[in-house]
Amino acid sequence: MDGDILAFDDDAQQGVVEATDGQRFTFQLSDWRGRGLPGPHMPVRFTPRGERAEQLINRPEAQLKARASRPHSPQDDARDAVSRRHSGFAIAAISVAFLSLFLDGLAPLLGLVVAVLAGLGLRQIHRAPQRYSGRLFCWGAIGLSLLLAVLSVLVEPSLQPPN
Questions:
Q1: Residue 80 has pLDDT above 60, yes or no
Q2: Cβ 56 vs Cβ 16: under 8 Å
Q3: How many angstroms separate the CA atoms of 142 and 138, rounded?
Q4: Domain annotation for the chain: domains and CATH numbers
Q5: What is the pLDDT of residue 119?
Q6: Which of 89, 95, 101 is nearest to 135 (CA)?
Q7: Global pTM?
């Protein structure tokens, strides 16, 4: 018979179970065969013997049915693209690379800053590609800083006076 435990007294080791038809039965802890300890509002299955319930066990629960996953759609790609954002390091790297275009004297120092920022950006993107984008910014910043470093060395006048 199926029912629910209404109450269980730990000190007295006795409880009351109510069957689905409304009848009430008492039980002892020695009649409990379920998982854990009996408690109120616990669904049980038991064998009635007069006014007592024996062989109480947890009522088996129905297994949940698996749900089919929904097919992948183009809207999912758009939603994923919206949730991704550019790495802050990548944006900082490309910004500093463009800034170094106008500050010729600081090009080597800014090139080093660009390399560090771009490296941090690539690392951040590699660790969480579903969250961050901006690889092209990082590689573009590195390329631009290398180009500026080469140009600054080629264009810089030599320190020796001509003969």
A1: no
A2: no
A3: 6
A4: 2-58 (2.40.50.140), 83-155 (no CATH)
A5: 92
A6: 89
A7: 0.45
Please give the Cα distance from 115 to 83 (Å, whole number): 27
pLDDT per residue as tens digits for the range 92-131: 989 988 888 888 777 778 888 988 999 999 999 988 888 8
Predicted confidence (pLDDT) at residue 45 exceeds the cutoff of 90? yes
Given a contact cutoff of 8 angstroms between Cβ atoms, the answer to whether 2 and 20 are in contact is yes
φ, ψ dihedrals at 151, nearest 5°: -65, -40
User: DSSP readout, 31-80?
Assistant: GB-SSS---TT-EEEEEEETTEEEEEEEPPPPPPPPPPPPPP-HHHHHHH
Which residues make beta-bridge pairs with 47?
Answer: 54
Long-range pairs of 104-109 with CB within 8 A, sequence gap ≥ 24: 104/152, 107/145, 107/148, 107/149, 107/152, 108/149, 108/152
Euclidean distance between CA atoms 156 and 137, whole angstroms: 28
* Mean pLDDT within 54-73: 80
Candidate from 54-63, 115-124, 154-163 with smallest mean pLDDT: 154-163
**Is the separation of the CB atoms in 6 and 28 below 8 Å?**
no
Q: Residue 113, SS3? A: helix
Identity at 58, one-letter amino acid code? N
- DSSP character for 162? P
